[in-house]
Amino acid sequence: MARVRAGDTAAYAQLVVLHAPIAKRVAVLSGAGSEADDVVQEAFVKAYRALPRFRDGAGFRPWLLRIVVNETRNLLRGRTRRSLRELRLASEEVGTRAAPDPADVAVGDARRAGLLDAIDALPDDLRDVVTCRYLLELSEAETAETLGVPPGTVKSRLHRALASLREVMSDV
Fold first, then answer.
1. Predicted model pTM
2. Mean pLDDT of 20-38
3. In the chain, helix, strand, coil percent, each to 5?
């Protein structure tokens, strides 16, 4: 970060290469869909411009991901929510394992589709926490920093979201 703050654009390019994949997954899973690349690009530009406000000792990744989440929210404001189809594509991109038995595959696909439907039906604040913790595998601290909420809020939202998902998934 010292090199980046000193104006070393090659150092910032290294940060972009390192963090772009997870930034894109955050954008897609937050609802940007096919516009995820635009959201990520704008987030990196805003992050670069905001470097003077970056706190020494803070993690760059959570800070960047918070910008990505905010950019995605800005994109979603004023237009309808993205279709579940894009969320399914994102979950496949994150990585799923198919069982070799066709019957297991069919059951797994149905459960996965049901889970994605249930996640998509969650309120935005709960869906964002589930996405960060379980689909992006961020720690609670990274999730809190990414979403700009206290760690206790992450825990309580996760508790509510998981209770809701358990209830919905018991019927699937």
1. 0.57
2. 89
3. 80, 0, 20
